[in-house]
Amino acid sequence: MEGDLVDSYDDLIARMTIEQKCALLSGAGEFTTRAYPELGIPELRFSDGPNGLRKQAGASDHLGLNPSEPATCFPTACTMANSWDPVLAQREGAAMGEEAAAQGVNVLLGPGLNIKRNPLCGRNFEYYSEDPLLAGRMAAACVRGIQSRGVAACPKHFAVNSQETRRMASDSVVDERTMRELYLSGFERVVRESAPKCLMSSYNLVNGTYANESRHLLGEILRREWGYRGAVVTDWGGSNDHAAGVAAGSTFEMPNPGKDSVRELVAAVRSGSVGGEALDARVREALALIFSTDAAVRASRGWFDAEAHHALAREIAAQCAVLLKNEGALLPLALGTRVALIGDFADAPRYQGAGSSAVNATQVDSLRVLIGESGLDCVGYEPGYRRDGGDGAALVDKAAVLAKRADVALVCLGLTEIQESEGLDRTDMRINENQVSLLRAVAAANPRVVMLLSAGAPVEVPWLGDARALLHLALGGQAGAGAALDVLTGKVCPSGKLAETWPVRYEDVPGAAAYPSTSRAAEYREGPYVGYRYFNTADVPVAFPFGYGLSYTTFAYSDVALGPAGSDGAPSEISFVLTNTGEVAGAEVAQLYVEAPRRDVFGPARVLAGFVKVELRPGESRRVALPPDAHAFQYWNVRTHGWELEGGTYRLHVGASSRDIRLSCEVELAGTDVPVPYEGLELAPYETGDVRTVDDATFERLLGRPVPSARPRIDRSMTLGELGRGRSPLGWIAGAVLTHLYRKSLASGEPDLNVTFVYNMPLRALAKMTGGAVSMGMVDAIVMELRGFWVIGLLRFLVEALLNKLRS
Predict the structure, then answer these.
(1) What does the pLDDT look like over 575-611, one tens digit per residue?
(2) Fewer Cβ neighbours under 10 Å: the N or C end of the chain?
(3) pLDDT tens across 223-249, in order?
(4) What is the CATH classification number for the domain harbouring 667?
(5) Which CATH number does the domain housing residue 285 bear?
(6) Exposure class string for 789-801: b at 16+ Cβ within 10 A, else e
(7) How much is the average pLDDT of 93-97?
(8) What proportions of the chain, in percent to the nearest 5, are helix, strand and coil?
């Protein structure tokens, strides 16, 4: 955000009372802030994203359960990342920004760029990658696109947010180097490259302090070190202590905590625990966000070209599709090929995730409807399986009979809606067994099987031998079906590459048995070894490596060269010649990896340092220049508290994936003369990369402090699902009822997201998400009751409830 936008509201701030300032920093409704017409301050409206607008038409809710206005459902972030194309991400962002302005929305809550630490995270479909460079570049491009239409983007969730279980009351315990290099790096890139006007803090604690109250994260790193001048908004219900948040650097508390929270902030300002300068700084950020986006909303035409955006969504989805297998060059399919269309997803596509990101699409294409326009000869359709995972032997038999009548069987499988959702983490990496049974039966009837996979996260592929070709569609948005047909028929040459590693089995993931953490502490014991950083360093086989994807053409790499050296001696660029050696036009994603000397400082075998997507005609060659990322040759030194360079021989690798290196060269760098951060420490697992199990003593040496106690505590952060662990009979009863409802919901196969949300919600959220019906004093009374002060706790609750009602 430009400085003059932030600094030009002093006169207005001077006219505001302390009460007005404090009230401005809390939500008035589920997605709106307070307006002050007498001061000329309009309301600010937020809306969920991140892959399409979710402005609710009637009563608003956080989880996306109530209907919203129609909007374009673009491919989700997990899909977009497979394009490795920031230009495409910026075009998508611009379209979403246009729709936001048209629907009167100031701030689109997205993109999401949390690192995919574990493939079971239920919200991975909303995030880009396991790599911060790829995630950061794609997110920065999306932000630029959204804000090019005058509204604000809100990248999220800052920071170290890696699981849905206990997401509002989980402490991410991570060493500073890993946090800097992996979990903050993408956010730093977004802040520096795209200047987002808003940023969302995460629910969780980070090393013992709620992210929204962390002076280290918000004050020292985000605002002072990175120079961020925009607003920070809590995740919905993510405020713990609003006054502490304001002091640390958080601007807005959402959704609507009622007047109790405003009174607390006013009292904190008057007592001096929150300085007047800090309050005015937050108000200035709020006003800058409000006024810098209000003009675009007011000037909007109030409509958008839905057909044009649908066409864009189809183009994007086609560029994101990843061809994982193509035995015997079965694809592309020639026009007139007789195909059997099999799988429930072919009729009712799986195109987005569940929860607050769910978009009410303007239209949704399906393969069953569009296949007649593709030039393929469809001999029939069979659903083949029950979507809920139940037995459907008769459906399988019918599908096998149909497959025999075709030249090729198109089988549409994947994860179901409830297997990937906000509020829940997956329990395994498998697709439903009834889908696997269908695939095997169809392959037995007709071995020429093309499998179309719809999933927002990696899955285990023990069934891969039953598919001659595998096209990964991820979650392709409302136009994903048309995009799939474009790739199947060769109208589009596939160029997508995986933005995350696909393990052979879930047990191969470091820390698999401890994820997700169900205690207060989520311990990041694997350190920097996440995704390909682990699998490549520990030399663990994978099903498909990071950066992998096939094409209908082939590419050759040659003639690598180093560019001029910079001030630190590192090359300013690496160039090479890329040639399309096939017979069709296509695009290749070339990737640059840096391998550090690792003499005294441990780390991954090699790390992504750059990438570029290049389109070439058959036989065309082009010299491609790849500048390394600013931190490509650096590591975060926990002793100097800065980025440093280890001296030695660095190897630079250019390739088609993290495990398909085509060219290599070396450069000798002097390094910075600083203390070795780990001298004298026994850190064997981190030195070898074998971090499948890391004991307490080793993790403590990496952290530089003791591992936090995992013992449950009775306080404001106790979850409602833990009420039975208190000392109150009322708590025991309430906990037993809620636990029963939660387990019943999970056992049903279609979990109730409201029940799940409530089960994992901390007590403090009762005062932040009930519109003022519950005060923090009432919460403290509940805590007292749960600690065993039955009579006093109950009496205090009644008194606090009466006071809250009188103050309303």
Answers:
(1) 999 999 999 999 999 999 999 998 899 999 999 999 9
(2) C
(3) 999 999 999 999 999 999 999 999 999
(4) 2.60.40.10
(5) 3.20.20.300
(6) bbeebbebbeebb
(7) 98
(8) 35, 20, 45
Q: Flag whether 395 is in a domain.
A: yes
Whether the per-residue pLDDT at 5 is higher than 50: the answer is no
Residue 307 φ then ψ, to 5°: -70, -40
* Strand-pair category, 502-503 with 542-544: antiparallel
- 522 forms beta bridges with 172
- The pair of three-digit structure tokens given for residue 607, joined into one six-digit string: 């790390």
Q: Would you list the DSSP string of 155-219?
A: -B-BS----STTTTS-EEE--HHHIIIIITHHHHHHHHHH--SEEEBPSSEETTEEGGG-IIIII
Say if residues 400 and 441 touch (Cβ distance below 8 Å): yes
**Tokens found for residue 307:** 């057909």
For the chain, the residue count is: 808
Contact 587, 545 (CB under 8 A): no
Question: Where in the sequence numbering do the catalytic residues fall?
Answer: 235
Confidence of residue 61 (pLDDT cuts 50, 70, 90): low
How, if at all, do strands 648-657 and 660-669 pair? antiparallel
6 pLDDT band, cuts 50/70/90, is: very low
In the three-class reduction of DSSP (H, G, I as helix; E, B as strand; rest coil), residue 15 is classed as helix
3-state secondary structure 380-412: EEECCCCCCCCCCHHHHHHHHHHHHCCCEEEEE
Residue 262 near residue 19, CB atoms below 8 Å: yes
595 domain residue, yes or no: yes
Mean pLDDT of 110-130: 97
- SS3 readout for 220-265: HHHHHHCCCCCEEECCCCCCCCHHHHHHHCCCEECCCCCHHHHHHH
- Token pair belonging to 121: 């995270």
Token code pair at residue 791? 């009579």
At residue 12, the pLDDT reads 96
**pTM (2 d.p.):** 0.96
Is the same domain home to 597 and 678?
yes
In the predicted model, what is the mean pLDDT of the chain? 95
Q: Do 488 and 434 sit in the same domain of this protein?
A: yes
**Residue 65 placed within a domain:** no
**pLDDT for the residue 254:** 96
Peptide bond into 42 cis (omega under 30): no
Q: Whole domain around residue 622: which residue ranges?
A: 532-703
